[in-house]
Amino acid sequence: MIRLLAFTLAAVFVASALSGCGGETAEKKVTIGISQVVTHPSLDATRQGIIDALADKGYIDNENLVIDYQNSEGDPSLFASIAQQFVTKNVDAIVSIATPNSQAAVAAAKGTAIPVIFTAVTDPVGSGLISDWDSHSEENVTGVSDMIVVEDGIELIQEIIPGVKTIGTLYNSGESNSVFLVAELKKACQASGITVREATVSTSAEIATAAQSLVGNVDAVWIGTDNTVVSGLEALIGVCEEQDIPLFSADEDSITRGCIAAYSFDYYDIGYQTGEMVARILDGENAATIPVEKGKVIALSINLGAAERMGVTISQDIIDRAETVHD
What we know:
The protein is an alpha/beta fold. The chain has helices spanning 2-27, 41-56, 76-89, 99-109, 150-160, 176-191, 207-212, 227-231, 233-243, 252-257, 267-282, 304-309, 316-321, and strands spanning 30-36, 65-71, 93-97, 116-121, 141-145, 166-171, 195-200, 220-222, 247-248, 261-264, 293-294, 299-303, 324-326.
């Protein structure tokens, strides 16, 4: 009887031990912190692309992956605190969407073992995220850039509006990515004999007033991937439609919302490309040895309805070349 009781207790102990081990295995997850600078369609699409790519690579949210998502909603005072929160939690990786919060993430993670993977950043070297696109062995940082060729956008504007002399632009001078793109805009326009007129904003609430300052002074308006302006894009579209000022952008989602045309990235694709990179790092690759990538797919997108509302006719040749045509 004693031997039978001992055997039974031993069997229960082994079963419990095995059950405990299985529970630990099932609960083993990786955690990433996703920091997004503000809510707007392009960055939301970027985030979704990241999540979908991770799932396709076997990292599934709420199964073996924990996503700590934080959005600063354009509040600079939150950039550093969100990044530090991720560091304090010792997440397995920080994924930062857009330049300002990527700068905060890199600063917070410096000196730790936490890799930072940025995305939707135009100029990662100029913004201080990395020292070199290809070789950054001392920096546990990499990512995907949305750098565009501004010259292509200016040539498109000239094709749609022959004889354009002055192009206006709105941007937040506190966003280093926007400062870079405006400098590129000026270079491209100077080469074509076009004058650039600038209007700056610090919050999306200032967009309508800034747009009004361009009325009567420009032949068209071009905006880059400025997070402040894109988050409040409808105010700019409203002024341009009311005043028959053709409005051009640098991203697909802004075309969907009411800009006329752009050579642009689909930000879901940018996010998916980033998610694939994050998966490689979670699998064990070193972020410091992975070169920064540029978005892989650029396509012409046009919005015929927006063009009509702003008094512009797009030729059939351009329509035929477009990858995406919105009515």
